[in-house]
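Example pasted here:
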Amino acid sequence: MLSLPHLPDATRNRISGLFATSTAHHKRESSWCTTTMTSLHSLRTYGRRLSDIPVSRLPNVTELEIKYLNTSNGYAGLGAALGELPQLRSLSLMNIQRSWVRTNVFSEVASAMPLLPNLSALAINHTYCLDRFPPSTVPLFCKILRGHAKLRRVYWNYALDSSDLVTYMEMIATHTDLEAFHISVWDGLTDSLLSFVCRHLSPQLSILSLSSVRNGCSDDRTIFSGLWTYFTDLSFLSVQIHGGLNTAVTVQDVIRGARRVQVVGLEVGYVGQFREVIYPNGEPVLLPAWPARKIKLYEIEDFGCESWDWFMRHHLF
């Protein structure tokens, strides 16, 4: 493998999939970057230790994605590492194991947020999103969000119960310029819940993802029509329904009354589809479902929209 300084500029601008597979291998790979990489802007890594990420040599990285940080002390030291990346605009922590959440991931991110004035996209994705976390979890996440007016994209897949939901959405409501938002709820999707969520989001939202993990979805086939009345610019909608597998809601029901949405996803039980929407006579018409290969192995060219690409990278569908 070529050392990083000798890679072509086009490759060094965006690097994915760096990881260590064993302790011995880690000792050899921890010094994979010994030169300051001024041309590197996006880094996605699968690492065993935070020391795999040479933050002091990445002065212009604006996008950082970390997956499977499988260590005994979880994310200890993450706050200090992020503090060396003040130019960061997008931070994604993916496939977080349960034990890490119960220890330090939220406090580490919260400690770094004052040092990340340019952060506009934040994603925290748990492997075990059905687990119930300590009562301090939601207030800690709200602390992460508090005062960061530049945030435009928020993706957190922890399933909120009714009391958590109020606290969380009141914080989200302070971010009036959100363009992409995912929310998971412990209870089912109902008309009253969707109305509550809408009231706390900007009508100009572009991407919305809704997930119910336990009680499914109301059988009212008009349940989603209120979204199209409230959101004026919604172009991408994803709905995941778990726990209530006998729901009568179909993807056609989801788009009933839609005016501008271009892509809609519906997953019931773990069987899902994404479909594009066209308006030949002013009414929404569904195109054939995307093949599984396109969902799993997409490129940004498949969407033509960087925001959609960001969302799909974090979406467990």
